[in-house]
């Protein structure tokens, strides 16, 4: 039996000449071999973000309740990119966030909460058996604005365990695209992604940075 992803199904569509010209411009004979390959590549690129179905927002720490506006804006951004399942990792001040943000029904999303005071990595540790596919992590401490579609494209092309979109290579806060296997690098107990997990993955060549060079 063939794997379903390897099956090829012929589809006939009618497109304008202008659109076909744009598609043909993608053909380089190497990365994109022909018109069919160009159409498939463009569709895959367009749908990549939709293949990521969930995100985790790290909102622990004493300053977290002051980040409510940033959290709400990030939820709207994730929804725009087709991410409707979000877990907000909160600390001991998380009740204020729960009351303000709620369960996501007003946004057409499903929002759950994970209570943790074990650092940014410790918050993810308790979710490692739940996450089965590529996911976003948003460190709301220093939010960044980035095109999630381009970020995911970069991640897919280079295939690290973690890609970090950040304004600062010093503190590595920002938006992360992570593979579930990256969670196996988190030890039990208090642990910080930025100080321990990312450092170890970088030494192993399994982490890449996606610099955000301009502020909007």
Please explain how this structure is put together.
With 216 residues, the chain is of the alpha/beta class. It has two domains: 15-48; 52-211, Spore Coat Polysaccharide Biosynthesis Protein SpsA, Chain A (Alpha-Beta Complex). 35% of the residues lie in helices and 18% in strands. The chain is built from seven helices and seven strands, in the order H-H-E-H-E-H-E-H-E-H-E-E-H-E. A seven-stranded mixed β-sheet has the order 3-2-1-4-6-5-7, sandwiched between helices. The chain is globular and about 60 Å long. The model is unreliable at 1-6 (pLDDT under 50).
Summary of the model, kept short:
About 35% of the residues lie in helices and about 20% in strands.
Radius of gyration from the alpha-carbon trace, in angstroms: 19 Å
Tell me which CATH architecture of the largest domain applies here: Alpha-Beta Complex
Distance between the termini: 50 Å
Mean pLDDT: 85
Number of helices: 7
Anisotropy-based shape? globular
The CATH C-level class name of the largest domain? Alpha Beta
Helix-strand string:
HHEHEHEHEHEEHE
Count the domains. 2
CATH superfamily of the largest domain: Spore Coat Polysaccharide Biosynthesis Protein SpsA, Chain A
- Uncertain residue segments: 1-6
Give the arrangement of secondary structure elements:
Layout (H helix, E strand, L loop, with lengths): L16 H8 L10 H17 L2 E6 L8 H13 L4 E6 L3 H8 L8 E6 L3 H7 L9 E5 L8 H11 L3 E5 L7 E5 L14 H11 L3 E5 L5
What are the key terms here?
216 residues, 2 domains
